[in-house]
Design brief:
The protein has one domain: Alpha/Beta hydrolase fold, catalytic domain (Rossmann fold, 3-Layer(aba) Sandwich). Helices cover about 45% and strands about 15% of the residues. Strands 1-2-4-3-5-6-7-8 form an 8-stranded mixed β-sheet, sandwiched between helices.
């Protein structure tokens, strides 16, 4: 199964998919989700889910980004519905990581759409000023890709100014979610070693709206766990102590990501884990 560019989205299309997953990544690594989130997204496609990963460039106007990624997804969805799958009905789920979670929440609060549910991983809703030190963590991951580094350097001077703020602001975002968010079924994922996660205040906003359909899962890992890549280790013809160390490192590096994949699979299709 190979990635395809459909209407500006990166798409994986298994035959007769269980559902379509609209994926939005975190700030500064969302420009190439088919690379930065490759292992996670390809594993979901292997489970029979179509993946539509929409790239975006980070700006201060998150409302505009939400509108644009929804338009981009809708173009891909129309193509898949009429030319590829031709099924009577395919449910659509949103999956967001970090800023991608905020965008899915804005889409569900401000624009007409139909979602069977949303998976919101490592949600954060900090102000522009507080985003500066958090962006540096992702910058370290993205420094190997020139487009991520360039995007960070372009936005950093704006974030450093005292008079700028994201649109909508953090306060306005929570107000919109509390008053207008329409996606009833939600999975909130928080990692144990994530200092910038704001899942708890999001849970407090969503629970009064959808108390029976809001689920929280706390998993081992950190803010960058969804970006983890599977480390391939080829043992030599004679298994050596060095090979044993390599296998151990591979298991440790993929353990948290595998737990995340299992959690998403179980929530999307509870019968799949019975």
């Amino acid at each position: 199964m190979d990635w395809r560019d459909i209407a500006g989205n990166w798409v994986l299309t298994p035959s007769r998919p269980e559902a379509i997953l609209h994926f939005l990544g975190g700030a500064f690594v969302a420009t190439a989700p088919q690379l930065t989130y490759r292992t996670l997204l390809e594993s979901l496609a292997d489970e029979g889910y179509a993946v539509v990963a929409t790239p975006f460039v980070n700006t201060l106007d998150h409302r505009a980004i939400a509108r644009d990624v929804l338009r981009s997804f809708n173009r891909a969805y129309d193509y898949l519905e009429h030319r590829v799958f031709r099924q009577e009905y395919i449910p659509v789920y949103g999956i967001g990581h970090s800023m991608g979670s905020k965008l899915h929440l804005l889409i569900g609060s401000q624009f007409q759409q139909e979602r069977a549910g949303n998976i919101l991983i490592s949600f954060n809703n900090y102000s522009a000023r507080r985003a500066i030190p958090f962006a540096e963590q992702v910058y370290q991951f993205g420094s190997q890709f020139s487009q991520f580094t360039s995007q960070f350097l372009q936005l950093a001077p704006d974030l450093a100014r005292m008079d700028v703020e994201f649109t909508p602001s953090p306060e306005e975002t929570f107000r919109l979610i509390g008053e207008q968010y329409t996606v009833k079924r939600n999975l909130l994922v928080k990692f144990t070693n994530d200092d910038i996660d704001q899942t708890r205040p999001l849970h407090d906003v969503l629970m009064p709206r959808f108390p029976e359909l809001t689920t929280v899962q706390i998993l081992k890992g950190n803010h960058l766990t969804p970006l983890g890549q599977d480390i391939k280790w080829q043992a030599g013809s004679n298994f050596s102590p060095f090979d044993a160390i390599g296998q151990f490192v591979r298991q440790e590096a993929t353990r948290d990501l595998n737990q995340l994949r299992h959690t998403l699979k179980a929530w999307l299709n509870p019968l799949s884990v019975l």
